[in-house]
UniProtKB/TrEMBL annotation:
<protein>
    <recommendedName>
        <fullName>Methylglyoxal synthase</fullName>
        <ecNumber>4.2.3.3</ecNumber>
    </recommendedName>
</protein>
<feature type="domain" description="MGS-like">
    <location>
        <begin position="1"/>
        <end position="141"/>
    </location>
</feature>
<dbReference type="InterPro" id="IPR004363">
    <property type="entry name" value="Methylgl_synth"/>
</dbReference>
<dbReference type="GO" id="GO:0008929">
    <property type="term" value="F:methylglyoxal synthase activity"/>
</dbReference>
<feature type="binding site">
    <location>
        <position position="10"/>
    </location>
    <ligand>
        <name>substrate</name>
    </ligand>
</feature>
<keyword id="KW-0456">Lyase</keyword>
<dbReference type="InterPro" id="IPR011607">
    <property type="entry name" value="MGS-like_dom"/>
</dbReference>
<feature type="binding site">
    <location>
        <begin position="56"/>
        <end position="57"/>
    </location>
    <ligand>
        <name>substrate</name>
    </ligand>
</feature>
<feature type="binding site">
    <location>
        <position position="89"/>
    </location>
    <ligand>
        <name>substrate</name>
    </ligand>
</feature>
<comment type="function">
    <text>Catalyzes the formation of methylglyoxal from dihydroxyacetone phosphate.</text>
</comment>
<dbReference type="InterPro" id="IPR036914">
    <property type="entry name" value="MGS-like_dom_sf"/>
</dbReference>
<dbReference type="Pfam" id="PF02142">
    <property type="entry name" value="MGS"/>
</dbReference>
<feature type="binding site">
    <location>
        <position position="14"/>
    </location>
    <ligand>
        <name>substrate</name>
    </ligand>
</feature>
<comment type="similarity">
    <text>Belongs to the methylglyoxal synthase family.</text>
</comment>
<feature type="binding site">
    <location>
        <begin position="36"/>
        <end position="39"/>
    </location>
    <ligand>
        <name>substrate</name>
    </ligand>
</feature>
<feature type="active site" description="Proton donor/acceptor">
    <location>
        <position position="62"/>
    </location>
</feature>
<dbReference type="InterPro" id="IPR018148">
    <property type="entry name" value="Methylglyoxal_synth_AS"/>
</dbReference>
Amino acid sequence: MSLQIALIAHDRKKEEMVNFVIAYESVFANHQLYATGTTGQKIMDSTQLKVHRYMSGPLGGDQQIGALVAQNILDLLIFLRDPLMAQPHEPDIIALLRLCDVQGIPVATNVATAELLVRALDRGDFAWRELVHKYKPEGEQ
């Protein structure tokens, strides 16, 4: 089963994201990848993966990926945030994370959580959509 996965990394986390994707390139190769501009380019420069790139995060890329979430297209978000650096587009980041919570999209904001999710993905333990739909209260879509 191919999933839709978005990859975002703040400036001081881009190298960490690239190294993470290199480590799990064989897993990511089986899925459709999306990323904000620079992060996606760095991943493509360092791997054989094809990544659909959106604008840079501060220029609207976070919102473009948020649209995938709102349309219930995205299955997983790995967003390596820099918690020690103020971000000028923080409202966009908060909106994206809120959308993921509303839609029940798994989100990793650090490598430790990202690794747990990607290992589950690799094992085929990623049937969360079926569980969400099975246990949704009547009347919710």
